[in-house]
Design brief:
Layout: H1 2-6, H2 14-27, E1 32-36, H3 42-53, E2 57-61, E3 82-83, E4 88-89, H4 92-101, E5 108-111, H5 115-119, E6 126-131, H6 137-147, E7 151-159, H7 172-181, E8 185-191, E9 194-199
Parallel strand pairs: 1-2, 1-6, 2-5, 6-7
Antiparallel strand pairs: 3-4, 7-9, 8-9
The protein binds S-adenosylmethionine.
Length: 201
C-alpha cells in the first residue's frame, strides 16, 4: 500500500496522508468531504480511500494549471506535468489515472475549476475540508473565508504546509491556521506540516 501511494506524484508526506485517512474515517457520516488542490491526486487518494470505506464522497477542486511555484522555471516545476501542446502545466490526466489505479472513480468527483467558482456550487455541511491550493496570502485567505462556513458543526478543517517560521516555508497557510484558532476551531492533531482542526460552532 505504501508503495502504491508513493507512486503518486505530490506534496504529501506518507504520515500526513495516514493522518488525513484516519481523520476522514473518524469524521465522515455518509456525507461528503472537499479538497482544494488535487494536483496529481496524492492527498485525494488518501481521503478518497477513507471515503470509500465509509460510504462517503469526495469533491476535489483544482484548475490543474499548477500553483505559482509549479510554473515553468519555478522551484517546484515538474516537466512531466507540462503539456507542450497546451503550453502549460496540466495535472488532470495524472489525477484521472491515479483515481483509476485506486478504484476511486465512483467516490471522488473532480471539479476542474478555480476555488472561488467551486465555492459557489458546492453545498454546505461538508464533514471535512482540506485546504492545499495556492499558497499566496491572497489565495489562502480567500480559500479560508470561502470554505470555512461550508464545514458542518463538529466537522474538520485540514490545512497543509504549516510552518512556524519563514525559514521553514511560506507563511500564508500558517496565517489562516492561526486565524482559525481565534474563530471557533480547535487543534486536534498536527502531523509534520498538516494540521487538523475541529469546528465547534
Ligand atoms: C500544493 S498542490 C496540491 C498538492 C496535493 N494536495 C498533493 O497531495 O500532492 C496545489 C494545487 O492547487 C492548485 N491550485 C492553485 N490555485 C488554485 C485555485 N485558485 N483554485 C483551484 N486550484 C488551485 C494547483 O493547480 C495545484 O495543483
Amino acid at each position: 500500500m505504501i508503495e502504491k501511494f508513493d507512486s503518486i506524484k505530490g506534496f504529501l508526506d506518507f504520515n500526513e496522508g495516514i493522518a488525513l485517512y484516519e481523520e476522514v474515517m473518524r469524521v465522515t457520516k455518509n456525507n461528503f468531504c472537499v479538497e482544494i488542490g488535487s494536483y496529481c491526486g496524492k492527498s485525494t487518494c488518501f481521503i478518497g480511500q477513507a471515503c470509500k470505506e465509509n460510504r462517503s464522497k469526495l469533491i476535489t477542486i483544482d484548475h490543474h494549471e499548477g500553483s505559482e511555484e509549479q510554473q515553468l522555471g519555478e522551484l517546484y516545476f515538474d516537466a512531466e506535468v507540462y503539456d507542450e501542446e497546451l503550453g502549460r502545466v496540466n495535472t488532470l490526466p495524472f489525477l484521472e489515472k491515479n483515481l483509476a489505479k485506486f478504484n476511486l472513480e465512483n467516490v471522488v468527483k473532480p471539479l476542474v475549476m478555480d476555488s472561488i467558482s467551486a465555492s459557489k456550487i458546492v453545498e454546505n455541511n461538508a464533514d471535512l475540508i482540506f485546504i492545499d491550493g495556492s499558497h499566496t496570502f491572497k489565495s489562502a485567505e480567500s480559500d479560508y473565508e470561502l470554505w470555512k462556513n461550508k464545514i458542518r458543526k463538529g466537522g474538520t478543517l485540514a490545512i497543509h504546509d504549516i510552518y512556524d517560521s519563514e525559514d521553514e516555508g511560506g507563511q500564508a497557510p500558517n496565517k489562516i491556521f492561526k486565524q482559525s484558532l481565534n474563530e471557533g476551531f480547535t487543534l486536534i492533531n498536527r502531523v509534520k506540516s498538516l494540521v487538523l482542526l475541529q469546528k465547534s460552532n
